[in-house]
Amino acid sequence: MTEITSQVLSTTSPDIAAESLELDAPKADEVLIDVAACGVCHTDLHVIKEEVNFPRPAVLGHEVSGVVVDVGDDVEHVKAGDRVVASFIMPCGSCRHCVDGLEEICEVFFENNRINGRLLDGTTRMHRPDGTDVAMYSMSGHSSRTVVPASGVFGLPDHVSLQDAAILGCSIFTAYGSVFETGRVVEGDTVAVVAAGGIGLSITHLAAAAGASRIFVIDLDDHKLALAKELGATDVINGREQDPLEVITTELGHGVDKVFEALGTQATVTQAVSLADDGGRVVLTGIAPPGHVLDTPIAHVVRRKIQIMGSYGATVSTAMPAVIELAAEGKVDMAQLITNRFTFDQTDAAYKALDAREIRGRGVISINPDLQ
Questions:
Q1: Which CATH number fits domain 174-310: 3.30.365.10, 3.30.470.20, 3.40.50.720, 2.60.120.260?
Q2: For the domain bounded by 2-170+314-366, which CATH number is listed?
Q3: Distance of alpha carbon 152 from alpha carbon 30, whole angstroms
Q4: pLDDT, tens digit, for every residue of 90-145?
Q5: Mind listing the pLDDT tens digit for each residue in 195-207?
Q6: Residue spans of beta strands (DSSP E) within 10-142
Q7: Which residues form the signal peptide (predicted)?
Q8: Residue 260 burial (C-beta neighbours within 10 Å; 0-12, 13-18, 19+)
Q9: Whole-model pTM?
């Protein structure tokens, strides 16, 4: 057992504060890592605001890079000293969904981790000094050191910055699943992205990498739209000032081939469906708070043969190597996607900034700035 410093979401306060916790050694098929950096994701904010049920006390943070300290039994693909990045989904590899190639909806991961705050064996590795269990959201990246199931840990090339690479494990990974696995964007496709937050900007960036011919990005914030332009958008639309459907149909004569919704509200999903061309595909990627439901004309969807599909992460074992390769080849500009950087003691402030829509692209917390 090791003493670590973590930023803890307590049972009595909506604020996150530093605490000294005790961390168990890695078990079989687990990896102990020193955390270099952790991304600031809206999904964690849903937990903080109690829009998603999750046990407390808890350590959040599910977008992590770092250096391996030790490995448990049966781990052979990484070793102590390796630079690594972790995916936020940590599949068991043996449930019915994993066997069918649907690792991103692994039943064991969702039951143990997303519902109960435990790792794949149903237990947590984090505890308060008095023995109180501390729930883990994915690998609990808001910690100086943590334990990650080996299925979610991947080696990182030496020339890729650890301080930037954290966003590969959720923001880019999730966008990869949306663009390449669910959306199946190919060269020449026309694309619309609704909401230019961290995920929406990553989708924009990867849609450009996939060869989309037109990429319309819709948001209410001109600063985010300007960044979308830098990341590959061909057209940006401020929804306060223009009607996105009118702009797109005027430009193309019809809707787009693929639409990506990246916020998760009733209004943005309804808008996303309206932008699809006949036979088009709408990919829902944003996580919605409870109570938000689909509200779209059924006849429109049926008559125009529109596909509405959910996309949660990606197939871990194949998508993470692909994402890392894109980063290694310079096809993903992580430094440009990261617009706000925070120190470890600014973790609570980072989520308050996210809630206030003050983070233009993706925020990253530097847990250990010495790890580069």
A1: 3.40.50.720
A2: 3.90.180.10
A3: 9
A4: 999 999 999 999 999 999 999 999 999 999 999 999 999 999 999 999 999 999 99
A5: 999 899 999 999 9
A6: 16-23, 30-40, 58-59, 64-71, 83-86, 126-127, 133-136
A7: none
A8: buried
A9: 0.93
